[in-house]
Write a structure and sequence with these properties.
- By secondary structure, this protein is of the alpha+beta class.
- The chain folds into two domains: 132 residues, Lipocalin, CATH 2.40.128; 160 residues, Ferritin (Up-down Bundle), CATH 1.20.1260.10.
- It is 55% helix and 23% strand.
- The chain contains eight helices and eleven strands.
- The strands form two sheets. The chain has an eight-stranded antiparallel beta barrel. It has a two-stranded antiparallel sheet with strand order 10-11.
- A hairpin with a 6-residue loop joins strand 6 and strand 7.
- Helix 3 packs parallel to helix 5, helix 4 runs antiparallel to helix 7 and helix 6 runs antiparallel to helix 7.
- The longest helix is centred in the middle third of the chain and has 32 residues.
- The chain is rod-shaped and about 85 Å long.
- The N terminus is likely disordered.
Length: 301
C-alpha cells in the first residue's frame, strides 16, 4: 500500500514538471548498469558512482552503501531520471552520445548544475559491452579545458615576470604601468579559474604547467638582474609576452566557440582586449625605456 502511494506521489510530482512515462523504446535503451563520469559544472567528483536501471525504475549508487531511487520518464522526447523524495528537486536530463553511452545534465529545481556521462558496464542482453570512443562534443570540451589551463599557466608566468619588471624598473611612471597590469592579470586569472570550475575544475596536469611556468619566470628574474640593458630588454620581453597572450586568447576564443561555450569565449575576448591595450602602452613608451637604459650607462642625452 505504501509502495503504491509512493508511486502515485512520484507520478504527481513528475507530471507537474512536464514528465510523462518513458515508453519501452527509451527504457529498453537504458536497461542495465552504468558507470557515471563527471564532465563539468558543480557536480562533485564521481568516483565509485554508478546507475542501475530496469524498465521505468532505477537507482544511483554512491559507493557500496548509498542508493538513491529514481523513475525513468520522458520530457520533450528525451529520457529523464526523476528522483524520489527527499531528492525530488533533482532531475537528470539525458541525450544519446553513441552506442553504449549517454550524456547527462543534472538539474535542481529546473536549473542546470553540471554535466556527466553514463558508460555501459558489464553485460547487456547477454552480450559483453565495451566503452565507445568519446563523441566530438566530449572531445571539444576536453580540448577547451586544456586551453583554459594553458592560458591560466601563461598568466601565472606573466605575474612573476611583472614582479621582476617592477623590481628592475627605476622610472616611477613605468613601475605604475606594470603594477596596474599586474592587477589586470590577477583579474584575468580569476576569470579563467571561474571558467575552469564551470568546465569541471583544474586537473592535476594544470598544476604541473603552473609550476613549470613559475620556475621559468623565476630563472628569468635572476637573469634580469644580470643583464646590461635591463630597461630596453625588459620592455622588449614584456611586449613579446603580451603578443603571446593575445595569440593564446585568440585560440581560446575559437575553441570555446566551437565547443558552444560563449561564456569562456567572452572571457577570452575581454582578457585579450586588456593584453592589446597593455602592448600599446608599452609601444608608446619605447623612447622612455631607451632613455632609462642610456642613463644607466652614463649616456644620458
Amino acid at each position: 500500500m505504501e509502495e503504491h502511494g509512493a508511486r502515485d506521489a512520484d507520478k504527481a510530482t513528475a507530471g507537474a514538471r512536464g514528465v510523462v512515462p518513458a515508453g519501452e523504446a527509451i527504457t529498453g535503451g537504458l536497461d542495465g548498469g552504468w558507470r557515471v563520469e563527471r564532465l563539468g559544472g558543480l557536480l562533485p567528483p564521481m568516483v565509485g558512482v554508478g546507475k542501475r536501471i530496469r524498465g521505468d525504475r532505477g537507482e544511483t549508487r554512491l559507493g557500496p552503501l548509498l542508493r538513491i531511487s529514481f523513475r525513468v520518464g520522458r520530457r520533450g522526447g528525451r529520457p529523464v531520471l526523476v528522483y524520489r523524495p527527499p531528492f525530488s528537486a533533482v532531475v537528470d536530463e539525458l541525450s544519446p552520445g553513441g552506442r553504449g553511452l549517454w550524456l547527462g545534465r543534472a538539474t535542481v529545481g529546473g536549473r542546470p548544475v553540471g554535466r556527466f556521462r553514463m558508460i555501459r558496464t558489464g553485460h547487456h542482453n547477454g552480450k559483453q559491452t565495451r566503452e565507445e570512443p568519446m563523441s566530438r562534443e566530449e572531445g571539444l570540451q576536453r580540448k577547451l579545458v586544456e586551453y583554459v589551463e594553458y592560458v591560466h599557466a601563461l598568466e601565472q608566468n606573466v605575474l612573476l615576470q611583472l614582479d621582476s619588471l617592477i623590481v628592475n624598473t627605476s622610472d616611477p611612471e613605468l613601475v605604475g604601468l606594470f603594477r596596474r597590469h599586474k592587477e589586470e592579470t590577477r583579474r584575468q586569472q580569476q576569470r579563467l579559474r571561474e571558467r575552469l570550475r564551470a568546465l569541471g575544475g583544474p586537473r592535476p596536469a594544470s598544476v604541473g604547467k603552473d609550476l613549470a611556468a613559475i620556475a621559468t619566470a623565476q630563472v628569468k628574474g635572476v637573469g634580469d638582474v644580470l643583464r646590461r640593458d635591463k630597461a630596453v630588454q625588459n620592455a622588449r620581453d614584456a611586449y613579446a609576452t603580451e603578443h603571446v597572450e593575445i595569440a593564446a586568447y585568440e585560440l581560446l576564443e575559437r575553441i570555446a566557440e566551437r565547443a558552444g561555450d560563449e561564456e569562456t569565449a567572452a572571457v577570452a575576448r575581454e582578457n585579450r582586449a586588456e593584453e592589446r591595450a597593455m602592448a600599446e602602452r608599452i609601444a608608446a613608451n619605447w623612447d622612455r625605456f631607451l632613455d632609462l637604459t642610456l642613463a644607466e650607462q652614463g649616456l644620458r642625452a
